[in-house]
Design a protein that fits this description.
The complex is a heterodimer. By secondary structure, chain A is mainly β. Chain A has no helices and 11 strands. The chains are: A mainly beta, B mainly beta.
Chain lengths: 114, 109
């Protein structure tokens, strides 16, 4: 248990569906991240939120839309996804005191797009 | 950007054996972490070790920042050590991690 939770843990969706992934952290951190892990690529950054503002969008397609309503919650809204978007989506958080702190990861949402 | 390379990509051990996993990185870093990813996908923090040596039970890690590498040692391996081990360094302005491709470890009984 890392203090970072994600729901749902598994999701199957069609290409025309709209769904949302949720991440919640109870560590008092104020930087949160979405990472993607697909079968053929290393873990890669999608979005960074610091103090609830998006500070980096790592050239992610617009069919992925993040939302950070407060420092404890992070969402990833999904619409019109493609089968190649099937992957493990991981959320992480860390304190906002500079670059040298440990990141803690949630258990991930395993997404399958049909 | 920073490149992170891990070796070996795959490792099969008999229970009780020792092993060393290596992580090379292409630029100076002030954040290096080792993770173990279990079969269900959870990334478990093992070490935050930008430099020096740390030990936690059967696991220890050493980072030589001036030579841009880190080593993870697993002693007396157990079947529960199986999984993928990732090295990651902070590479972005907001501390986001850049991951290596991992070492897949299989420990046989």
């Amino acid at each position: 248990e890392t203090g970072v939770t994600q729901t749902p843990r598994h999701l199957v969706m069609g290409m025309t569906n709209k769904k949302s992934l949720k991440c919640e952290q109870h560590l008092g951190h104020n930087a949160m991240y979405w990472y993607k892990q697909s079968a053929k690529k290393p873990l890669e950054l999608m979005f960074v939120y610091s103090l609830e503002e998006r500070v980096e969008n790592n050239s992610v397609p617009s069919r992925f839309s993040p939302e950070c309503p407060n420092s404890s919650h992070l969402f990833l809204h999904l619409h019109t996804l493609q089968p190649e978007d099937s992957a493990l989506y991981l959320c992480a958080s860390r304190p906002q005191r500079g670059r040298g702190e440990t990141q803690y990861f949630g258990p991930g949402t395993r997404l399958l797009v049909l | 950007g920073i490149q992170v390379e891990q070796s070996p990509p795959d490792l099969i051990l008999q229970e009780g054996a020792n092993s060393t996993l290596r992580c090379n990185f292409s630029d100076s870093v002030n954040n290096l972490q080792w993770f173990h990813q279990n079969p269900w996908g959870q990334l478990i923090n093992l070490f935050y070790i930008p430099s020096g040596t740390k030990q936690n039970g059967r696991l220890s890690a050493t980072t030589v920042a001036t030579e841009r590498y880190s080593l993870l040692y697993i002693s007396s391996s157990q079947t529960t050590d199986s999984g993928v081990y990732f090295c990651a360094v902070a590479g972005g302005s907001q501390g986001n991690l850049i991951f290596g491709k991992g070492t897949k470890l299989s420990v046989k009984p």
